[in-house]
Amino acid sequence: xxxxxxxxxxxxxxxxxxxxxxxxxxxxxxxxxxxxxxxxxxxxxxxxxxxxxxxxxxxxxxxxxxxxxxxxxxxxxxxxxxxxxxxxxxxxxxxxxxxxxxxxxxxxxxxxxxxxxxxxxxxxxxxxxxxxxxxxxxxxxxxxxxxxxxxxxxxxxxxxxxxxxxxxxxxxxxxxxxxxxxxxxxxxxxxxxxxxxxxxxxxxxxxxxxxxxxxxxxxxxxxxxxxxxxxxxxxxxxxxxxxxxxxxxxxxxxxxxxxxxxxxxxxxxxxxxxxxxxxxxxxxxxxxxxxxxx
Length: 294
Fold this sequence. Notes:
This is DUF72 domain-containing protein. By secondary structure, this protein is α/β, with parallel strands linked by helices. It has one domain (13-280): TIM Barrel, CATH 3.20.20.410. The protein contains 10 helices and 9 strands. Helix 9 runs parallel beside helix 10. The longest helix is centred in the last third of the chain and has 18 residues, at 230-247.
C-alpha cells in the first residue's frame, strides 16, 4: 500500500499518540477477557507480494499462506464481486481457525460513494461474502480520500442500514474527518453506537489517521511499513499498546501489515507475532521466511 508513503521516514516522529479520551472511557466499561483473540496477516498472499516466503515448488499459495498465518486482509474483493464458486474454493483452502477480512467492493465506496445506487451492489456483495461462512472475519469499508464530512448523511444512513450479523470496520482518509474535533466526535459516537470498529491506520505520511480511538471491543490496525529500520521500533510500540489495552479489557485485535518486500527483507508480520507471543504469553504460529531475520 503506497498510501502515506514518504521519501525520508527517518524524519517522521513515529511515536504512538496517547489514547483518545473516548478509548479510555470505552475500555473502562469492558471486562478483561482471556485469552485475547488476535489475528495477524498480510494484505495479499501472492508470491509476488511476499518474496522469500513460499518454499520452492509451492503450487497452492493460499494453502501454504494459511498454514503460516491465521488471517488475510482480503483486498481482492475491493475490485469485484467474485462468483460463489470462488468463495467456496477459498473456504476449502484454509483451516478452521483461519479468517478472511474482506474489503467492501469499490462500487459501494468509491464509485457510488454510499449513494442510493450503492445499496443494491452492497446486497450482492454481502450475499457473496456470506460464502466465507464461519471463516468470515470483520469486513472493512475504505472510503475514497476525497470523501469528506459534507457527505455525513450518507455515512449515517449506511451505518444504520448495515446488517448487524456482519461485523464492520470503517476507514476514512479525508483529513477533515479528524482535524475538526466536533466532526470526529460525531463520527466516533456514531460508530460506537452501532458497534462498528474504527480503523487505526499507521502510515508514515498521514499521522492524523492514527487517532487511537477505539469504538468497540475490537482494534482493527492497518500498519504500513516505511521499509526502514524504524519499522521494528514501531511494532514494538504496538505490542506494548496492545498489551495495555488487553489488560484494560480489549477482546479482539486484527493487525494487518502492508510491506513492500525486497528479496532480502524478512516479514515484519513474523517479527510482530514473535513479539506478541513473548509480550502477551500467546502461542501464535510464527510464520517461516526464507529471508534472514534482522
